[in-house]
Every structure is written in structure tokens, then in C-alpha cells.
Amino acid sequence: MPTLDDILEHIGEFDLFQKQVFFVLCFLSAAFTPIYMGVIFLGFTPEHRCLSPGVAELSSRCGWSLEEELNYTVPEQGRHGESFSSQCRRYDVDWNTTDLSCINPLENFTGYGNRSNIPLTPCQDGWVYDSSGSSIVTEFNLVCEDSWKVDLFQSCVNAGFFLGSVFVGYIADRFGRKLCLIVTILVSATSGVLVAFAPSYLWMVIFRFLQGLVSKGSWSAGYILITEVVGPSHRKTVGILYQVAFTVGLLLLDGVAYAIPHWRWLQLTVTLPCFLFLLYYWCLPESPRWLISQKQNDKAMKIVNYIAKKNGKKLPAHFQNINLEEEDGENLSPSFMDLVRTPQMRKHTFILMYNWLTSSLLYQGLIMHMAMAGGNMYLDFFYSALVEFPAAFIIILTINRIGRRYPWAVATLMAGAACLIMALIPEDIHWLKVTVGCIGRMGITMSIEMVCFVNTELYPTFLRNLGLMVCSSFCDVGGILAPFIVYRLAEIWHELPLIVFAVVGLIAGGSVVLLPETKGKTLPETIEDVENLYRKENPREKIIYLHVQTQEVAHSKCDRSLAQ
């Protein structure tokens, strides 16, 4: 019985219809960036100091410059957290005293022979921020003892990704890709608007969590839909280019954030256009592959005929009145224990889990750390985003020529080594620090895209969906940890997060070498096939299954026999 892939070979694997669907879904991929990395601009922390009552009036009376005001009234000026006192403590004195000197006002307070002996007190009256714009930090005073709340703001999004992946994947498999796409877009856009109007930090975090709960699901549903309507020969390339659209979104986010430096208006600007994606209800068809899996062959054939007509092709007569069937692998029930039951399966599972976590941790961590490096935040973000384009190009060139394992290992090792080198470069050589950071960003971008499809090639057919779901969930765990590692460890030593990233990345790159090369090999059908990946294959007939449907990634099936 012919498969959908057989028909796509006749009516177009990536023709006009598929190109149009791919084009409109790329907007969805680009719109995911403000949710995934928006904290860089929404949670920007400018230079700040305690608000001391009476200082502004005294400065005005004395005609001080800003530098003089800071020198006279702020303790121990420092940068990059080197001096906690300058940002989170103020002198415990009354600046409203009328007889204060303009030359050295602290001398007027008797009992203190030295400035260092003057007692300090927390910033009870708020802070002064050296910024013309606003962020959640400046509005809710998320600094000093409350600075961890910025970490929580970003971690809540990743926690939403983690929890939402299960039920959003169920919706996509149970009710269809199109319905899942529309529902998640509506909820994500509504939650994004609510974030912009949140009256307090608590409500902002709740709405942000809700947005994370569905937003990754909408991005994944778009990924699944486009990869299910193209032919097998274009599937990996289309999947990679769909992620390139995410990179385009990073560049657009950078430009919009530069033009709108006020976080509530920025949040509205990047969220309101998402409501236009509801037009997908009329623009996009349901996945014919999903309809076939639900035994709705008549509806699937109508869409197939529409694709043929749109592509200017005619469906062959012997395909007109057939019942499409998707081949199934072994009729086995997957279990979590199967992922660790045998030696090779256990090794694959642990290495893939660790590499998913590493990829997300280094990707988000590098972006956050470069944003707080002290240079121009917008330019640094722009330069580091640009390197993701050659990363995608290198992957497309190498995966079918060199293979998966070595390019993946080299990319991850490159990211880890770049983090280590960045930590050793002095801060006054900022351009070199940014350059090395961009190289690391390119490496970890390649690593993310490689682990995405290699994961599907290392598990047998009946375990492939479960294996990808379990392993890729560690990507969100890495995202939850990233802000705490970056912002908390940077208070101890500004380069300490990079040292952690270097160690984690180098271990991940070394572990990739322990995996088998999957280039040119048939996908395993049983656990025994996985165990035999390291041995010389015995001549026998094999069936290739290239169809995986999960909440994260979808590849279509192609069933053919190979005689050796």
C-alpha cells in the first residue's frame, strides 16, 4: 500500500504549496524569540544607587555635577558587583541637615573621623537608576536582595515550557496540529498582553508562566506541521531553516527593543502582532499525515488533491481511489524503563539528556552573560545573533557529507572552549571578548540543531517519540538553571558563570564522541538494533521508518526495503 511520501514524490515534495506554508509558519517561529530571550531587554539592570532623601536638593544647591554627587554621597563606587555597598547601601546620615558643606558634606557629621567608619543602611527609600528607559527591574526594584526575582521571571517561562510540553503534545496528537496551533497562539498572545498590563511582580510572573506553558507548544506545532507536508528529501533542511527564522526573530527583537526602551510598550509591540497568526485557521490545512493516523482518509485525500492542484501537478490515476495507510513499526508498548534497560540504550539516554541540558544552558547563558558584559547591549546581541546564520549553513553542508557525530562534537567543544577563553580575556579588551563569545554562540547553535534530529535516529521505532520527549525535556531544565547560574555566580566573580559553562560544554562535547555515527544507517526498529549499531551490520532486509511525531520534532515516515 503506498504511503503519503510516495504520493508527495509525484505531486511535489517542496513545491509551491509547501513553500507557501513554510513561509507563513516562519513568522510564527520568529515571533517565539521575545518569549524565549525577551528577558535580556525586559529585565535589563542599569547602573543604580540608593535614593537618599535630601541628596538631590543638596546637589542642586551646591551645583554639583553627577560625578561630584556620587563621590560625596555614595559609598564605595564599583562595577560588575565588585562593590555591593555602592548599589545596595547608603550612608546612614540625614542629608536634609541645613548646614552641610558643599566641599565635603560628610565632615559635618561629627563622631566620624573617617568616611569608612560611617555606618551604612539598606536602601529604604528606593533606588536611582541611570537609564532613560524602563524595565521590570526599574519598575519593581528587582535589585540587591530582590535581584533573584529576575532569575525567577525567566525560569518561570522555562518551567512553563517543561510542563506544557506534555499536554500540548497530547492536544496535537489527539485533536490535530491545526487546532493545537490556533489554541496555543490565542492563549500565548493573550498571556503576553496580560504581562504588559500586570499590576505587580507576582501577576507578571503568573502571566509569564502561562505564556511559557503554551508558547513553545505553538512553535513546535508549526514545526510539526511543516515537516509533515514536505517530502522526506527536504525534511531536515526545512526543519533547520524553520529554526533560522527564529534567528531572524532575534535580530528583529533587538531592533524593536532599541527603538522602544520601555518594557511595557515593548511587550505590547512584540505580542499584539501574534493575534494575526489566528488567520492560520483559514490559511493552513490540517496535516494530511495526522488525518491518516486518525483513519480520516477521505479528508486526507481532499488535502492531497488540493496540494497537487496548488503545485500544478496531477495526482496519478492509480493513487486516486486508494486508502492511505501509514506503516507502523513493531506493535510494542513503550515504557520509561526501556530507555535504560540495555547498555547502549542507557548510554544514549544519559548522553542525550546531558547534551539537551547543556545546549540550552550554554545558549541562554551566553546570551545573558554577553548582555551584562558592560558594552553596548544592543550591538553585542546583534553580532552574536548574526553568527547563527553560518551555523545553520554549516550544518546543512556537513550532516550528509561528514556525518552527525564529529561536527556535533566539534561544535560543542568549540562552545565550551570559547567560554573558557572569554573568562581569561581582560574586560578592557571588550571587542575580543565579544568575538570569542560569538564563536561560542555559533558552536552551541549548531549543537542545539544537531541534538534535535540525532535524538530521533538513536531510538527504535516504538520508543522514538518517548525518547525524544524525555530527553528534550532536559532542554527546559537547562533554561531554568541558566539565569540563576549567570546572575548569582556573577555576584561572586563576573567570569565564574563562563567557567561553569566551559566545564559543562567540554564534558558534553567529549560525550558526543561516545555515540555511534548514524549517517547512512537505517533507523533502528528494535532495542536489539540499537545494541547492534556498534557492530558490523549483518546482511538482512531492513525497513526504514522516517516518521516521528512528538511535541518537539516531527519527521515523516518513508518505508522501503534495502537488499544488500
Structure, explained:
Pfam families: Sugar_tr. Residues 100-520 form the Major facilitator superfamily (MFS) profile domain. It comes from Platysternon megacephalum. One of its GO terms (biological process) is monoatomic ion transport. This protein has 564 residues and is mostly helical. The protein has four domains: 1-39 and 142-322, MFS general substrate transporter like domains (Growth Hormone, Chain: A); 48-130, no CATH class; 337-531, MFS general substrate transporter like domains (Growth Hormone, Chain: A, Up-down Bundle); 532-562. 61% of the residues lie in helices and 4% in strands. The chain has 24 helices and eight strands. The strands form four sheets. Strands 1-4 form a two-stranded antiparallel ribbon. A two-stranded antiparallel ribbon has the order 2-3. Helix 9 runs parallel beside helix 11 (201-229), helix 10 runs antiparallel to helix 13 and helix 21 (430-457) runs antiparallel to helix 22. The chain is elongated and about 100 Å long. It starts with a helix and ends with a strand. Mean pLDDT is 83; it is low at 78-83, 326-331 and 536-564.
